[in-house]
Amino acid sequence: xxxxxxxxxxxxxxxxxxxxxxxxxxxxxxxxxxxxxxxxxxxxxxxxxxxxxxxxxxxxxxxxxxxxxxxxxxxxxxxxxxxxxxxxxxxxxxxxxxxxxxxxxxxxxxxxxxxxxxxxxxxxxxxxxxxxxxxxxxxxxxxxxxxxxxxxxxxxxxxxxxxxxxxxxxxxxxxxxxxxxxxxxxxxxxxxxxxxxxxxxxxxxxxx
Length: 208
Hints:
The protein is mainly alpha-helical. Helices cover 81% and strands 0% of the residues.
């Protein structure tokens, strides 16, 4: 039980702190409401569960055998974050010339895009590998696996819901076209910073 509590703490700290997933989900909630952000939240949670399933099936061996795999994931993840950040920033300038508010609907592929991004997020892999190693199989493998699956589902969902609430509250006081554009520019800039942090603060996964 103590190992599960440690794992829960690691997941909570990793998922509540600012990061690309939280920023993107918060942005969707701010522009389109909590219900519109649910598919994106589901994509993040499902991606995390899929990563955990791969690690449980033996993906950690691949990182140990091929340390360069982490470098490939880091570069791909940073490039993807830069692309998303650039789209947000460029979109605000394109919308600035319109007389009508910018479109705030959520694209149907938001959930799939965030689901796929989880596999390009090296910090996510580190979290899953660390928690899985800390908890271990235990005497009751099935029970431990079910508990881990629950932790990787409930805790990230609650943390994302909090970020959604912050986004909705923020836009309640900044509900103008100009303010929305500046928020999107800030979000885009933060995604660039997240990409830079991925590259400048690498994590050695070969010993996980």
